[in-house]
Structure formats: structure tokens, C-alpha cells
Amino acid sequence: MTFQEIKDQEQAYIMHTYGRVDAALVKGRNARAWDAEGKEYIDFTSGIGVNSLGYSDPQWTAAVAAQAGEIQHLCNYYYSPQNTALAEELCKAAGMAQAFFCNSGAEANECAIKIARKYGEKRGADKIVTLNNSFHGRTLTTLAATGQEAFHKDFLPLTEGFLYAEGGDLEAVAALLDGSVCAVLIETVQGEGGVVPMDEGFVQGFSRLCRERDVLFMVDEVQTGVGRTGHFYSYQGYGVQPDVATSAKGLAGGLPIGVCLVKERLRNILKPGQQGSTFGGNPVVCAGAREVVRRVNDPAFLGAVEEKGAYFREKLLAMPQVDFVRGRGLMLGIKLKSGDAHDVLTKCAEAGLLVLTAKELVRFLPPLTITQEEMDEGLEKFAKVLREVD
Ligand SMILES: *Cc1c(COP(=O)(O)O)cnc(C)c1O
Q1: Looking at the structure, do residues 235 and 303 belong to the same domain, yes or no?
Q2: What per-residue confidence (pLDDT) applies to 390?
Q3: Are strands 181-186 and 216-220 parallel, antiparallel or unpaired?
């Protein structure tokens, strides 16, 4: 099929919920991809932080294919050793006690919200505090948790019971945490909100405040998790341990997964029949995730993520069109002195470089395994595009 045929088919048969770029990707290897017409791209997106080990990593592919050839799915009424092993490996990496598996970030947050409601139920505490400018998903409840009105518009009424606080303002947060609040849910680095990192004092103070007021401290690690920030979970880099953490995007290296992790004191808070998912914890997906966890949860791998992040920053800051760079590890937001981020994204694609935007910033979420050569090639293309739009 030619690109035009693919595009026509999309126009005719797919709901237009995405502003797409003119490229149909059909093949990839690590941080390199090729489109339907054979054009090569350097990839700084990893599919919004999903392909942690890059495109079609050989060991990941082998693990997934081998499991598909053994048993591809079973009903959650039976046991699966891929599923139980992933739960143990993940809990140990995260400092958590138990896992619930589902298929996406939004579902993982739905599970966290159900746990929070159940935790507060006995004392009538049903409110959940989230931050302005946050992003927690597209279901009606996780939209309500998302502190950005632009996403709510047209879909009212949403699930009730969410309060919004300003990130960084501990006093404002403290004023909200009365007896009606059962939990807070935050991103340590707001991804969709424009790659906005919370400062350490705020996150640590927030965590302490929650403990003092018997409010669950829940961290949405959907974008920041699984090595993205140079720590297995970003909260480990902030020196806090949440009661509940949610993870998805990069966890299975490109297969749909979500997980809600809880600390020891919440062991078995949800009873049989209170939560479930047909596909959740599917053995093929878990086999892919185990390969990701095995590779990422290694100090040398995580150290390399941090070093690559520092290298990106150094090179980006040397580009005269760049105003500032923010984020952690390989989660980078780039503010340009002038020009429109989306226009830059389009021009990058034309130049053979895949990037993302987040609000008015250009965003890079490259595969964690990106090589020196791939970084340099992509950065060179980026510098060239910036010179042209300047
Ligand atoms: C992407 C994202 C979600 C939603 O995940 P889906 O898998 O698209 O449902 C939730 N929270 C954060 C922080 C995200 O970045």
C-alpha cells in the first residue's frame, strides 16, 4: 500500500481523534524506524514512552514469541507462572507488596481510585486530591482526576469527588487534606502537562503530610516509570515510597499493560469479585514485561539512562534556539525561544526525526536503549530543523 492509500483508509474508517503526522511506520529497530515508502527516521518518541527497549528488540521479541507459542491467554480463574513471576519481580523492584494487572494507564489509575475509595469508606472519606495540570487518563473517572478543564469539556458530568491543588504549593495542599479526603494522586513529573517536574521538597512534604493525616499517597508512574527518569520508579529518585503506584506505558516494552501496586498495609484491600480484567496479566504481555524489568532494573542500565539524559541536555542547551530544557532522565521537555512546537514536530518528521510535543514544549521520550550514534544522528537533524525554522 502507498502512504496515500493508507491515509485515505484512515480518513474513511477511523474516528479522527488524533492529529496524525504524515508517516506510516512499518518497521523499526531500536531507535530507528522506516515508513511505508522506505524513508528512515530516528525515533525520539518510543511511541510515547512505550517501547522501552526500542523497536523489536531481539530478546524481547523472542520472549514474546516463545510465550505466544506456548499458551497465549488463560482465564484469570487459573494461575499463570509468567503472571506470578512478573508480580514478584515488579513488587521487589518497586518496594511494594501486591499487584493488580490490567491493560492501560487509565485502568491502573481506576484501580488506584477504587482502592482509595475503599480505604476511606469506613470513615466517609471519599475525596481524592490531584494536581492542576495533571493527566491521569481518558475514562470518565480518570478524566475527572485530570486537573485540566480542556479535557473535561463536552463530557460532563464526570465522576464526582475530585479536588485540585497547585503542584508545588504545600500549604494549599495541606488546607485541602481534611477528614473528607482518602487519597492524593500525583505525577512526580507531569508528562502531558508539559514535562513539569515537581520539586523534591514538595513531593517529600506531600508524602509526609499524607502519612500524618491518614491519606493514601498515590503516585501515577504511567509515564515516569520503568527506568524513564533514571530510577526504576521515579519516586525512588525523590526518596519517597507511596502507598499506591500505577504503571503502564513502558512496562511491557510495547504490549498493552497496566498495573496498580500497593504497599504492605493495603494487602488484600480489594476482595474477590471487587476488581477484575479479562486480559489483565495476560502471559504474552507478562513475558514481554519480564524482559523489560530484567533489563531495566539494573543499576548500570539506569545509570546509562541518566547519562544519556544529561548528554541530551548538554547538546540541546548548546542550540541557540533552545530556551530551556526540563524533565528527568530520558523524559525531556524543550522550550524553544520562538516558533510553534507542533510546527517543529512536523518539520522534524519531514527531516527524518520523530519527536513529540507536550503543551508548548517539544518532548523527547527516546527508547531507554538508544545508542550514542542514534542520539547524535537525531540531535543533528533536530539542530538543522531549528536552524531552518529560526
Ligand atoms: C499516558 C498516561 C496515562 C494514560 O494511560 P493510557 O494507557 O493511555 O490509558 C495516565 N497517566 C499518565 C501520567 C500518562 O502519561
Answers
A1: no
A2: 84
A3: parallel
